[in-house]
Amino acid sequence: MARASDNRHKLLVTSVAWVVALAIFFPILWTVLTSFKTEGAAVAIPPQFLFFDWTTQNYAEVWARTDYLRHFTNSVVISVGSSLLGLFIAIPAAWSLAFSPTRRTRGVLMWMLSTKMLPAVGVLVPIYLLFKSAGLLDTRTGLVIVLMLSNLPIMVWMLFTYFKEIPRDILEAARMDGATPGRELLYILAPMALPGIASTLLLNVILAWNESFWTLNLTAASTGSLTAFIASFSAPEGLFYAKLSAASTLAIAPIVVLGWLSQKQLVRGLTFGAVK
Amino acid sequence: MTMKQCLLALCAGIATVCAAQAGAVTLTIATVNNGDMIRMQKLAGEFTRQHSDIELRWVTLEENLLRQRVTIDVATQGGQYDVVTVGNYEVPIWAAQDWLVPLEDLGEDFARDDLLPAIDDSLSHDGKLYAAPFYAESALTMYRTDLFERAGLAMPESPTWKFIRKAAERITDRENGVYGICLRGKAGWGENMAFVSTLAHSWGARWFDMQWRPQLQSRGWQAAVSFYVDLLKKYGPPGASTNGFNENLALFQAGKCGMWIDASVAAAFVSDPRQSTVSDDVGFALFPSRGTLENHGNWLWAWSFVIPSASENIEAAKSFVAWATGKSYMQLVAAESGWADVPPGTRQSLYSSAEYRQAAPFAGIVLQAIEAANTRHPSEQAVPYVGGNFVSIAPYQGIGTVVGQQISAAVAGQISTRQALANAQYIAEREMTRARYLD
Amino acid sequence: MASTHTGATARLMLSPAVALLLLWMAVPLAMTLWYSLHDYQLLMPRGNDFVGLENYVYFLTDPAFFQSLANTFALLAGVLAITVIGGVGLALLLDRPMHGQGIVRLLVVSPFFVMPTVSALVWKNMFMNPVNGLFAWIAQVFGMRAIDWLAEAPLLSLTLMVAWGWLPFATLILLTALQSLDAEQKEAAEMDGANAFARFIHITLPHLARAIAVVILIQTIFLLSLFAEILVTTNGGPGTQSTNLAYLVYSQTLLRFDVGSASAGGMVAVVLANILAIFLMRLVGKNLER
């Protein structure tokens, strides 16, 4: 009796959850579907959901018009590069904040976070002039630096909250055994903190991949990332929904797939101290 | 300053300097993402075949983004681009600042004297040419001959605004998704203000008096803008306040507009059966006038290539500019994709070509519109500026943007026309004071 | 001995991050401050004279300034409300046993990975467009007038768009927090005869308080400088109805090319962000204390 009602309950939860999940996912699904339509079918009324003439022509056109691979490579280099570089700086910082807290620890953290609230465009011209004199305009190096700096606060904080959860007794024990801070970090902390580091890395790759201000304003021909790729499709002439959809799909597919594959990893560290 | 040096040192420390490819010259070219430019990119293989030592790199962007990026770069002498696509708004302002390389000796194929005089004039500063026009446009009335016939209307070659209103009323058929008129409503100095400014000029209004005082609350502006807002609200498509050139083009091509008054470059797109569902039923007329005034607003726009003076490859850039805007490029396009696709509006020789006239039935009226555009005297009243669909002064981008927002809000029904113009006047005075045109 | 040693090392390890951030903050900030006191117009170079507070007066008297301030907070409040309430609901739903849980979760988190520019383009063109959009078609099917979303309700449209992207983030954090809720605690409450609602109010919600605080803090950081979505969809309009502070600064920089007033605007935004930050830290910090 109880089991039957449990089953019915589970079925109900299942159907509600699927409806909600599909509704949330629908815009992405619709974009992917539209990318396989002809331009005419893309704006047809009533909308055609599955039964239309599937075509890959939009992809062919988008592919022929732009250098997708170059944009893609730039996105990968910039997002992974800035995240890795950020980790090198953020790990020691978060380590010291978490294990040698002082009265100012909270203040330092909060100050770091507040730097992210400034509108980037307000400092565009100063940064542009700096980059110009440093020869960093339209270089991957320049973008890696800028994106690393703009995501550093989030990285430090995320790692800090993760490190704080690591039991201190283990460190005490290691220190008794005479481990230096460097060894302590490398051999004891790092393995334990690996999930947190991995998810920090992932989150920052995602944030950097999707960043659209600096990647658009400090680049020209050679380092344009996928955000620049999308910008060249945002308002072409005439009917463009299908081509826009194809370009959109190409721009988001890599990161969505990465997100799916690593979702478990990402979630494990994505608590920001929300869970005791 | 020490801070700056610190950062520089830091950057230099981390930087892995990418060495430029030895020998070959790489040109970075910024273009707008419209059909003609994209075709040119496809054909550019021809150029690199002729110049094996030059490599081309493209930055193709949507118009507003393009303008922002290149303006910052050119004004700060950033030197990221060797060739930049701009309009005739920027050319005289930038040339006056010495930010551009004068385009002399572009070669025989370029033939400056073949350019239409109105275009040449709009791209020159102190008699020197600073930009090479890729294509140019005035504005036209495009309409659906089938709908006009059904409604028993005949479009005059030079329509009046009164006639346009009457026709819009008769053609509108909301049940079947046909709207009498499509016009730009999306805020922006290059979007709705291009139209509204031309409309106001054709109405006899002016942006500024001879002391540079904004005139946006004058009777002419009130009448012209009320007419426009009312027309769009009654006979325009839903969402008119967010429709720009591209959106209206899509609507017209899909058969949803009875009339569309916009840039003449659209004539080729609406008559192209490959992209337009109404290509067989399109007619053309001049930009409307007020009837008593023989003034069609003086819309003139030329997408052109300039070479920033910060470029390090000026000679190679010149040879590219000469190729892309020269006479033989027209022949190349004609051979590759047909005469109708040749970038219009820049050369006399194009309009005297019989093949072009045959392939592009709208050629005559486009030429007529371009030749009639008098940007030195856009209004019947005296003005201190050059312009038509814009005003060629540096603060205009800011003013046009904000005035455009206000008028767009009036089209969306958020504020009254009177209020919109009052706000616009206040902002225009503020900006002109800031720019020190006014005390 | 050991503790001073580690203390010094700790400072040494912290210093690169702090130094870099200081530079990142201080250099542009110093330049911005300098420009904000000078007459620097990119398109009208005229000597870059010192002008005192003129740029500030100009920026603060912009007719759109107060509206942009209000819009900034309206967007923030709207998105936070939707993501927190929706996130709690979704987390409760996803926490239950169901068929195909893995796939459901993947579908729900997906919007978080989508580039804001792409999401804005898709919503604007394929959903909210009053002629060709899907919403217009739905309205038509039900015999209603097609709403021109971006013109008639620009702030609401933006809020929905942005909330769609952040909902998965809130859900994930809240779900993780929910899963750490002691099963024993839940059972004990159930034994006491508390009904589902009472259990939610007295046990689940207090447990989630910390996670909610985190969601609010992180999202606020990103939403205060919300910009790309506005640029792509409404351009701050119609009029200035969807202009927020970041967009207003943008219009000074990239539409008027007035570096002086943009810098003044940047400084104003910095001050406001810091006021809000202090306020937030008080509110959220308490929740984050152990």
Automatic annotation (TrEMBL), chain B:
GO terms for cellular component: periplasmic space. It is found in: Periplasm. InterPro entries: Bact_solute-bd_prot1, SBP. CDD domains: PBP2_TMBP_like (cd13585). The keyword Signal applies. Its main location: periplasm. Keywords: Signal. It comes from the Bacteria. Residues 1-22 form the signal peptide. Belongs to the bacterial solute-binding protein 1 family. This is Sugar ABC transporter substrate-binding protein.
